[in-house]
Design brief:
By secondary structure, the protein is α/β, with parallel strands linked by helices. Helices cover 19% and strands 30% of the residues. The chain has an eight-stranded mixed β-sheet with strand order 9-8-7-6-4-5-3-10. A two-stranded antiparallel ribbon has the order 1-2. 35% of the residues are buried.
């Protein structure tokens, strides 16, 4: 997935390509909680046919390295997406994150990215990995990680950028 987008949770928008990448502190794998509603929302976007779809995840910090994904954005892909690639619309994604932030009383924040793959058990492509690593190092990213969620036809891949690398993680049902 080739994504050239911007990220912000506030009004000031930071571009991927205009800010230098900063080294982030070392961290441990976060404990990520999700509900059945989140899984159901993601499953609605399975790529049975047509082009890839992409969006963002928002959630809350629970404390002690615990986080909960609370919302899945609708697909926000720019025209021209193909079966094997897409570009997420930065303006729509930023608006979604800002809306969630405001509606939650300033507790909901950007947690990561989701997109689809037309395969049963998806794995991240090189473009997936490099784009989400760049996001993890943006100065406006308040978390020490970024989640990567890839919705396949039979399963969902959950990964997390930690210390400059993507690691497969398990999510915890609540």
């Amino acid at each position: 997935v080739d994504r050239k987008y911007k990220y912000c949770k506030r009004k000031g928008v930071s571009s991927l390509y205009t800010r230098p990448i900063k080294k982030r502190r070392d961290t441990v794998i976060p404990y990520i909680e999700i509900s059945q509603d989140i899984l159901d929302a993601l499953s609605e976007y399975k790529q049975i046919e047509g082009p890839e779809k992409a969006g963002v995840l928002s959630g809350v910090v629970l404390g002690n390295n615990r986080y909960r994904i609370k919302k899945v954005s609708p697909p926000m892909t720019i025209e021209g997406a193909t079966r094997n690639s897409c570009e997420r619309d930065a303006k729509l994604a930023n608006a979604f994150i800002q809306e969630q932030y405001e509606q939650s009383g300033h507790t909901s924040i950007y947690m990561g990215e989701w997109h689809t793959h037309p395969e049963s058990n998806p794995t991240p492509s090189g473009a997936d990995v490099s784009s989400v690593i760049k996001i993890a190092y943006l100065p406006d990213n308040d978390l020490p990680f970024v989640i990567l969620c890839i919705v396949g036809l039979e399963s969902i891949y959950w990964g997390c950028v930690i210390n400059g690398k993507i690691q497969k993680i398990s999510v915890n049902m609540i």
